């Protein structure tokens, strides 16, 4: 099973955007993360489509979170970039072959599908339990109280607001 | 995020093998599931490498579960076919760019990686909580008490034991 690598970049961008006082251009987020701007733009478009960030147009334009980081979960970001579909797709194998179960007897998902759905729900619940604000708090706790001030300073310097 | 489609076939095979009194040839499992034998053989090889099924050689050879279905979890089968690696791979983005965290300060995984690892653990715990015996019981409960007798009869007919 594999998740899009874009999820990791998108989560880092959201955490960084908690420090932003002004819209942050995509190219600046790319520079901060040392990744190609076009690759990051794709992830930011995913976040924008999902309503997690907004793109502000104009000379001092860029990206901002659309709401408080307490209200954006890790699951929101994962689904924005990687899609909302479960990893397991039931192809109704029970309806195939010489002992096929007739379609009219397949009103509930099969036992295998149910087990997979329950695991998927547990995974999503765990991702829903963590917000971008939690991640930002963990970052401060990991690297010290000045971490976000440093990021804010770097972003402002680029804006000419240093 | 996407899981190998082989997981679904492998789980169906394991459930069917709980009904087997004799080794079941791969080609017979493929016929029962109406899928190409070469495709199914690949999944069975994965199960065999993981020690979940054994291949019995000879004229009445085929596949058998290596242990009681109570002792084979859905997670065992998922990992046998899809590999044991988590869907999320941390690429240490924090060590990149102008504000990079020095490698020597990255002794514990970053907050994003920790959140993903916790969700992965919840997913695996849910899959570990369900055994092949549970699935077989659910199948009986869904389709009636004669379901496995029917499968056993079909498998035995092929063996010439009907």
UniProtKB/TrEMBL annotation, chains A, B:
MF annotations from Gene Ontology: DNA-binding transcription factor activity
GO CC annotation terms, alphabetical: cytosol
Gene3D superfamilies: Winged helix-like DNA-binding domain superfamily/Winged helix DNA-binding domain
Signal peptide: none
SUPFAM superfamilies to which the protein is assigned, alphabetical: Winged helix' DNA-binding domain
Name of the protein in question: BadM/Rrf2 family transcriptional regulator
Upper lineage: Bacteria, Bacillati, Actinomycetota, Actinomycetes, Micromonosporales
């Amino acid at each position: 099973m594999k998740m899009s690598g874009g999820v990791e970049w998108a989560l880092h961008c959201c955490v960084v955007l908690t420090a932003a006082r002004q819209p942050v251009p995509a190219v600046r987020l790319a520079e901060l993360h040392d990744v190609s701007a076009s690759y990051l733009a794709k992830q930011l478009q995913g976040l924008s489509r999902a309503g997690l960030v907004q793109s502000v147009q104009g000379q001092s334009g860029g990206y901002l979170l659309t709401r408080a980081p307490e209200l954006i979960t890790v699951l929101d970001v994962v689904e924005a970039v990687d899609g909302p579909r479960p990893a397991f797709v039931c192809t109704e194998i029970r309806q195939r072959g010489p002992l096929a179960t007739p379609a009219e007897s397949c009103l509930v998902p099969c036992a295998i599908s149910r087990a997979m759905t329950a695991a998927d729900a547990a995974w999503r619940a765990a991702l829903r339990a963590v917000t971008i604000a939690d991640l930002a708090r963990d970052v401060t706790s990991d690297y010290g109280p000045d971490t976000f001030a440093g990021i804010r300073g770097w972003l402002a310097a680029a804006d000419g607001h240093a």
